[in-house]
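job 3f2a | input accepted
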Amino acid sequence: MDVDACVAAIEDGDDIWGVSVNVSVVCCGDTDPKEVMRRTLAVAEATARPILFGIRRDPFDWPLADQLELLRPGDVLTYCFNGQKPSMVEGGRVVEAAWEARKRGVLFDVGHGMMSMDFGVAEAAIADGFLPDTISTDIYKRHVGLSPTHDLPRTISKFMASGMPENAAFERVTAAPARVLGLEGEVGTLATGACADVAVLRWNEDAAPLVDSSGQTRPGGCWEPALTVRGGEIIGG
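job 3f2a | predicted structure (237 res):
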């Protein structure tokens, strides 16, 4: 990890929102994750950028509370509803370290992916009043066609099935991420002057059961895409 090279790349680019780091065992290998994070913080401080942080899940290696203490206001922790240990939920309640981080201004993102959506964790956190700040899929080309399915309409549906009100779920895939990315008023809203990008969804009461990363299922229907508009022009549907 070359701090100077990373800083230079950010300063040369106009569209770089922040610094992404994943300190998991898979990503760091034998490298000390604390040194990886130290260098990430150096880049973020030098460029005045937020960090998108992927948790290290090994309670004997680096406690979750110690990781959370390093995050600053505006930084985003992703994979927050992963069911592996250490979890944000213990004994059916969100751990105090997560509440403290939220009070400091740390944001919490879903990042569903192949590993980071557990119905038990999500249901407990939502019941405890700890909703994610943003709902995201972490989907990319390699994930297409894999199970569990985690396109955005289905991911929204999973959080509704976990107890999140519909309005709150949709706000966290539209206006909320627009605010986080500094794009408020441009995207994530239906308003004069905003991008004419619209996703039209239909509710399918008879959709296949919703499945989380550990194979748990929930019934209850699912949102599905009906029409896509980009820049005012229909491009799918």
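job 3f2a | The first helix runs from residue 3 to 12.
job 3f2a | closed
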